[in-house]
Amino acid sequence: MAQMTVQIVTPDGIRYDHHAAFVLVRTTEGELGIYPGHVELIAVLAIDEIKVRRIDDENHVDWIAVNGGIIEISKDLITIVSDSAERDRDIDVSRAERAKLRAERELEEAQHAQNIDMERRAAIALQRAINRIRVGQK
Q: Are residues 123 and 81 part of one domain?
């Protein structure tokens, strides 16, 4: 079976390193499905989930929440560099829900104060929290 190596790197080091038969990511341009032998490319990732179908079992899927980043595909090595990455099993959903509520309050306050910078930061924090909740509930 053809396979690829998937590595996810954050400032804390390598957060994920496994062999995969298929990877699905969302770039800023749209979804990208990757099989072994994919054309080489570099793309900007959106704040979203990454789906990795592992080679050890066709039903084994890892879900990873990333806060954007860069993906590089070179031969059969996929390298993802992101500020943070969390596997579904490692996400504290209740903590993510509290972060979501906090971001919603901050977004509302920023909109009321008409503070564009604060509004942008709160919107990103909200998007990250929602992504973590979605992946954590898989």
A: no
What's the structural domain count of the chain? 2
Residue in the block written with tokens 């080679």: 55
Regarding whether 78 and 18 lie in a shared domain, the answer is yes
- Separation between Cα atoms, residue 134 and residue 62, nearest integer Å: 13
Distance CA 77, CA 64 (A): 17
- Looking at the fold, whether 41 and 98 belong to one and the same domain comes out as no
Q: Which domain holds residue 120?
A: 92-136
Using CA atoms of 92, 49, 121, 109 in order, give the dihedral in degrees to the nearest 10. -60
Q: What is the pTM of this model?
A: 0.87
| pLDDT, tens digit (0-9, with 9 covering 90-100), for 57-79 | 778 899 999 999 999 999 999 99
Structural Rg of the chain based on CA atoms: 16
